[in-house]
């Protein structure tokens, strides 16, 4: 159960090692009896998940998603000029822009033939896949849907009439009405072919554009469920949009009420005590069947997912007032996980959904100009807040982590907040989640919920935790820790 942020200086896609910031090392249960199914924190998992568009802004110095330009051979350079001769073959930037414009208009007009016109009709599997994609996209509440260029890989001109083949990285800029605060992106790589001077431009293959650099995903927010499944089922409630494989439509219908309650409760809690700022009216929740599917939704992970759920923040396709912002979030949950296979109590699917909603509430409030601070966000704040919202209105003892945590406290706990370096210790991970939860409970009881939310917001905005404690709570972090340690020990009596 995790949440992700954009990374600092994430490289743009290209001919480099693929990356994504997704799956962290697998979470291991604690050694103290039947372990709660505790997925390890995945902030590293998505440190980078949301950063496709941001990467271009940071590394290329270009406005994200808007006319990013066709890099590669200069259209006015010697090769294209030579190719423009009597026998030359070339594909101009203007032609590629027009191709994407026609493709966007066909999608908006629900014109399947127009949508497929870009693709090589001889590639039957490609045509079938793009037809499937077109129909799946038609089931989504898209208020924005357009295709824009990112960059070109390879030469687009040949002076000897041999034809040209190159890759074009394409951004699918889209916004789910009522759920995204701004348009977001998904990156594709199209293979472009022109066989002769007067031949049409054809797309002969489509895949995810590779994410360059070191990280946990090979792609940038690809594949979406609309790419992955032959047919999607969309279940909409007043505050949740559930997406599932159509073969599992019954699962989406089953969890839709719980998802809507989780979102409604989270929004109500935040709106009652949270600071002003962007809050979506609902969240998108995708239902995976197993860890393999989790690893390949909105990413192609380099490590297998282990958590019951995660929340991914997507950078907006366009800057606002010259700054990058979060445009929307995507929650993914594994409905085959034990949290979803049992019913009753406080530690079932409802808790997972509320936990991920809490992450999604905070993600739009991240200050991307303070991106260097994201890797330093304290896990006890990030995950503690999510646990606090998940169990809001219930005592700390409602968490199944409590019994084991009490044993560890009684056994000689050192009384300190868990640092990021030790957070993922498999023998203590569940305990660390509980300590973060206890920290939020103590903060709310001592300082009030409005200050709790202001404190968490400050940390998400890049303010160091010790300074946020002084600025918002009026105490040093050491003073807060001392009071919290006494509170934890009292809970363990």
Structural write-up:
The protein is α/β, with parallel strands linked by helices. Among the domains are: 64-208, Nuclear Transport Factor 2, Chain: A (Roll), CATH 3.10.450; 377-493, no CATH class. The chain contains 18 helices and twelve strands. Strands 1-11-12-10-9-8 form a six-stranded mixed β-sheet, with helices on both faces. A four-stranded antiparallel β-sheet has the order 3-5-6-7, covered by helices on one side. Helix 8 crosses helix 11 (349-362), helix 12 packs across helix 15 and helix 13 crosses helix 15 (429-447). It starts with a strand and ends with a helix.
Q: Which secondary-structure class do the elements indicate?
A: alpha/beta
- Spatial ordering of strands, largest sheet: 1-11-12-10-9-8
Radius of gyration: 24 Å
SSE succession = EHHHEHHHEEEEEHEEHEHEEHHHHHHHHH
Strand content: 15-25%
N-C termini distance: 28 Å
Output mean pLDDT. Answer: 84
- CATH class of the domain at 64-208, named Alpha Beta
**Which topology of the domain at 64-208 does CATH recognise?**
Nuclear Transport Factor 2, Chain: A
| CA-based shape | elongated
Question: Major β-sheet, in short?
Answer: 6 strands, mixed
The number of strands is: 12
Secondary structure tally, helices: 18
Q: Name the poorly predicted regions.
A: 5-74
In short:
By secondary structure, the protein is an alpha/beta fold. It contains 18 helices and twelve strands. The chain crosses the membrane at residues 45-70.
Topology:
Blueprint: E1 2-3, H1 43-46, H2 52-60, H3 78-83, E2 89-90, H4 93-108, H5 112-116, H6 124-137, E3 142-153, E4 157-158, E5 164-176, E6 184-194, E7 202-208, H7 225-228, E8 232-236, E9 240-245, H8 249-273, E10 283-288, H9 291-295, E11 309-315, E12 326-334, H10 338-341, H11 349-362, H12 379-390, H13 402-410, H14 420-423, H15 429-447, H16 449-460, H17 465-473, H18 477-491
Parallel strand pairs: 1-11, 9-10, 10-12
Antiparallel strand pairs: 2-4, 3-5, 5-6, 6-7, 8-9, 11-12
Helix pairs in contact: 8-11, 11-12, 12-15, 13-15, 15-16, 15-18, 16-17
């Amino acid at each position: 159960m995790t949440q992700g942020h954009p990374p600092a200086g994430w490289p743009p896609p290209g001919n480099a090692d693929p990356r994504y910031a997704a799956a962290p090392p697998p979470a291991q249960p604690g050694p103290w009896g039947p372990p709660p199914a505790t997925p390890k924190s995945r902030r590293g998992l998505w440190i980078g998940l949301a950063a496709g568009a941001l990467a271009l802004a940071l590394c290329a110095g270009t406005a994200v998603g808007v006319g990013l330009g066709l890099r590669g051979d200069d259209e006015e350079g010697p090769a294209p000029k030579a190719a423009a001769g009597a026998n030359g073959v070339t594909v101009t930037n203007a032609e590629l822009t027009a191709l994407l414009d026609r493709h966007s208009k066909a999608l908006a007009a629900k014109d399947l033939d127009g949508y497929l016109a870009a693709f090589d009709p001889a590639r039957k599997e490609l045509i079938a896949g793009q037809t499937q994609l077109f129909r799946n996209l038609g089931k989504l509440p898209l208020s924005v849907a357009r295709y824009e260029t990112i960059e070109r890989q390879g030469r687009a001109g040949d002076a000897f009439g041999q034809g040209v083949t190159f890759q074009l990285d394409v951004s699918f800029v889209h916004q789910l009405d009522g759920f995204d605060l701004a348009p977001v992106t998904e990156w594709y790589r199209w293979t472009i072919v022109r066989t002769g001077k007067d031949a049409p431009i054809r797309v002969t293959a489509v895949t995810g554009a590779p994410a360059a650099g070191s990280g946990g995903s090979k792609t940038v927010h690809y594949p979406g469920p609309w790419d992955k499944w032959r047919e999607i089922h969309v279940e909409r409630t007043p505050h949740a949009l559930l997406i599932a494989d159509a073969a599992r439509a019954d699962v989406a219908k089953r969890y839709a009420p719980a998802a809507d309650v989780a979102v409604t409760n989270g929004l109500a809690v935040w709106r009652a005590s949270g600071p002003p700022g962007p809050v979506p009216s609902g969240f998108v929740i995708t239902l995976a069947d197993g860890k393999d599917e989790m690893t390949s939704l909105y990413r192609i992970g380099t490590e297998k997912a282990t958590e019951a759920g995660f929340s991914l923040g997507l950078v907006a396709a366009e800057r606002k007032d010259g700054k990058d912002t979060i445009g929307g979030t995507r929650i993914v949950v594994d409905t085959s996980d034990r949290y979803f296979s049992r019913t009753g109590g406080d530690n079932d699917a409802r808790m997972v959904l509320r936990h991920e909603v809490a992450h999604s509430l905070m993600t739009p409030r991240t200050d991307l100009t303070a991106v260097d601070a994201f890797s330093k966000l304290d896990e006890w704040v990030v995950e503690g807040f999510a646990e606090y919202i998940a169990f809001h209105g219930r005592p700390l003892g409602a968490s199944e982590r409590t019994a084991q945590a009490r044993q560890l406290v009684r056994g000689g706990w050192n009384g300190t907040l868990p640092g990021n370096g030790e957070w993922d210790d498999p023998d203590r991970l569940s305990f660390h989640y509980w300590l973060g939860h206890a920290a939020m409970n103590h903060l709310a009881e001592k300082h009030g919920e409005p200050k709790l939310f202001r404190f968490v917001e400050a940390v998400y905005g890049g303010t160091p935790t010790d300074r946020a404690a002084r600025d918002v709570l009026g105490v040093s972090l050491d003073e807060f820790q001392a009071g919290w340690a006494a509170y934890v020990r009292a809970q363990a009596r």
